């Protein structure tokens, strides 16, 4: 890559050397005295004039010639060490041709090296008080004092301050020293038939048959035929298809839905119902019971007699 093709001469190639001192000296000598002293003086003047004219001619020729610069153009420091090269140069071992420019130290912007926005020195590149932006294939990479960002306009990855963030539309995933935050998005991971889902509604893990879920203020275990819920208030609710239906435990109160089975489905079933008539049986009752069991039926207190075994 020659670097001298655009350098022009200072004077035009057709510019002639100004004046003719030697010719004027010869004319002066021809018209002057012919004695020996004068003749010697005129000869000295002619020699001096001729020498001066030759030097003027050489200077004019140099100014009419386009200067030639070698390639590469090399810059050295006061100790002779190479600090910059421009053009064609060979580096490495074995030597490889490099075309372009190399600078040991480079500063860009500012009013000098101490205030430069970009500096390359000692094997490192620094960007100070400036923004580096690169766009290629619709993807823009930006580096500045605030952090680092890569975006294609739809998806953005950024490192800003103490957090890393991924933005997809209005959804975001943010990781910081305080933890992982997901906003406006659903995180889903499926492995070995088990799916874990995290979103703004809560958290769930399921294998398709059994599900563990935290939503709002409720923790729930659910299967194909029933579920168990624990609310933030401490209320435990068990729901199941079949004779149990639904039961809750709220403090010291147990609510067992419409049926309470004691001893399984073939044992005693306490139903939430009353009747005004009954069918007589064959059992005989003692005259006086041992006591009465106080219960509430239909919202009203009642007493059921009981007898010694």
Protein model, in words:
There is one protein chain. Helices cover 13% and strands 45% of the residues. The termini are far apart. The chain has helices spanning 21-31, 36-64; strands spanning 73-76, 82-91, 96-103, 106-108, 118-121, 124-127, 132-136, 139-144, 147-151, 155-160, 163-168, 171-176, 179-183, 187-191, 194-199, 202-206, 211-215, 218-222, 226-231, 236-240, 245-250, 253-255, 259-262, 268-271, 291-297, 300-306. The chain is mostly beta strands and 309 residues long. The longest helix is centred in the N-terminal third of the chain and has 29 residues, at 36-64. The radius of gyration is 52 Å and the shape is rod-shaped. The strands form 6 sheets. It has a 9-stranded antiparallel β-sheet, with no helix packed on it. A 7-stranded antiparallel β-sheet has the order 7-8-9-10-11-12-13, with no helix packed on it. A 3-stranded antiparallel β-sheet has the order 1-2-3, with no helix packed on it. The chain has 2 helices and 26 strands. A hairpin with a 2-residue loop joins strand 10 and strand 11 (163-168). The chain has 3 domains: 1-69; 146-184; 187-274 and 286-306.
